[in-house]
Design brief:
This protein has two helices and 31 strands. Strands 6, 7, 8, 9, 10, 11, 12 and 13 form an eight-stranded antiparallel sheet that branches. Strands 1, 18, 21, 22, 23 and 24 form a six-stranded antiparallel sheet that branches.
Length: 420
């Protein structure tokens, strides 16, 4: 009873906290020289800093979701802003990997770039054809092995000028990567094994090809919304990329840009469309003028987070590469309308969970709870009149789920993770 009473008081406190519209000022630092990337969680400002200068290849550890999104589990991205260049070696196949590479004129070879709009499209995914399960670097073998077998060999030009030949030997049953790379004369051959299970609910792990280390650098994919990062932008120069400091959104989140308004008072996106592009915020919230960066006037971004909450972001300062400090304020909204004391506040914990998910509403009226999986299928539904529901997750498979809570005309949505 004491625990239930404490949870009820917690819910009352949360309702009081969110009973009025509050602009929260915050900042992140990518550090001098923009050497870090920062993963940022909107609801509480949690920041995770990781070096953006100690890796060359980002390797997806997400599952391939059949049949809707098999590409996300086969993504390979490069750290192009650091000076990585990747070329496809002409006429080289998997059987050619052990051959000596003649690099004469290699700058004229097919130069590959990551997409800065679609997270799943990495440089090594160029040339893909999903219709036949061709992921660029390799092709799905089908039953009984269910592997993706590498078919291309690539030339990596590292920032120190070193040249490496690189081959994805295979992705074993969507569980483990087998990567190979070596100097052009076959010396320093490295075989790298990366198991996905060890990095559950992350997007990528990061390989350093000079010290052969695999770095686990990200928070859980459910624990961040924005990534502040220096990246190779494709929308600055025509037919080329250029390094820029900007903001990416986590997969599944959507952004609407509202320009030419009073950024302090605008409270919805209006007719401006929401975009799922990872660079929908990007780099152009600032302009370089007379030796310093200035923030663009009358500009706000509305972000539909995976939690179901919408946030407004307004940038206020960028300290250039001298400090890497980016300041902004954020404001929380529900469906484009500022929160009021009539809004329903729902808390879920622990998240991730393995056996029981506690759902706190603080309501004594009839409340309907529905749980959906990532494919939109209804997993469970309940109607209760208690302010607290303990939802059994022990028999559920590991993965991401969505909770919808309805009480009268009020609706709240939450996302949670089951880890078994």
């Amino acid at each position: 009873m004491k625990a239930v009473y404490s949870l009820f008081l917690l819910c009352i406190t949360l309702n009081n906290i969110f009973s009025q519209t509050i602009a929260v000022y915050d900042s992140v630092s990518t550090h001098a020289g923009n050497t870090d990337m920062v993963f940022y969680r909107l609801n509480d400002g949690q920041k995770t800093n990781s070096s953006n200068h100690d890796w060359h290849l980002a390797v997806s550890v997400r599952p391939s979701l059949f049949p809707g999104n098999t590409l996300q589990g086969t993504t390979l991205r490069i750290n192009e802003q650091l000076g990585i260049n990747v070329y496809q070696i002409p006429n080289f196949t998997a059987d050619s990997f052990s051959l000596i590479v003649d690099t004469t004129g290699y700058h004229t070879w097919n130069h590959l770039h990551d997409s800065d709009t679609v997270l799943d499209m990495g440089a090594l995914n160029n040339g893909l054809n999903i219709a036949v399960y061709n992921y660029g670097w390799g092709i799905y073998s089908g039953p009984p092995n269910h592997d993706v077998t590498g078919r291309k060999v690539y030339l990596f030009e590292l920032p120190n000028g070193a040249l490496k030949k690189f081959w994805v030997e295979q992705l074993d049953r969507d569980t483990a990567w087998e990567l190979k790379y070596a100097d052009l004369d076959n010396s320093n051959l490295q075989s790298i094994h990366i198991g996905k299970a060890a990095h559950s609910n992350k997007n990528f792990v990061y390989l350093n090809m000079l010290n052969n280390q695999v770095h686990d650098k990200e928070p859980l994919s459910t624990d961040w919304d924005l990534q502040f990062i220096k990246y190779a932008a494709s929308d600055i120069l025509p037919a080329s990329t250029y390094p820029a400091v900007g903001v990416w959104t986590n997969k599944g989140e959507r952004v609407a840009e509202v320009n030419g308004v009073d950024a302090a008072t605008v409270d919805n996106a209006g007719a401006n469309p929401f975009s799922a592009n990872m660079n929908a915020i990007g780099w152009d919230w600032k302009v370089y003028n007379t030796g310093a960066y200035q923030m663009r006037d009358s500009l706000a971004y509305f972000i539909q987070a995976n939690s179901g909450v919408t946030y407004k972001i307004v940038f206020t300062h960028y300290g250039d590469s001298a400090t890497g400090v980016i300041t902004f304020y954020k404001q929380e909204f529900i469906t484009g309308i500022s929160k009021t004391e009539n809004e329903m506040v729902v808390e879920v914990f622990p998240n991730p969970t393995s056996s029981v998910l506690n759902i706190v509403t603080g309501l004594q009226t009839e409340t309907e709870f529905k749980v959906f999986d990532v494919e939109g299928k209804l997993v469970s539904e309940k109607k209760v009149t208690s302010p607290i529901l303990q939802f059994n997750t022990a028999e559920m498979q590991s993965g991401i789920y969505f909770l919808t809570v309805t009480a009268g005309s009020s609706v709240a949505r939450k996302r949670f993770v089951v880890n078994q």
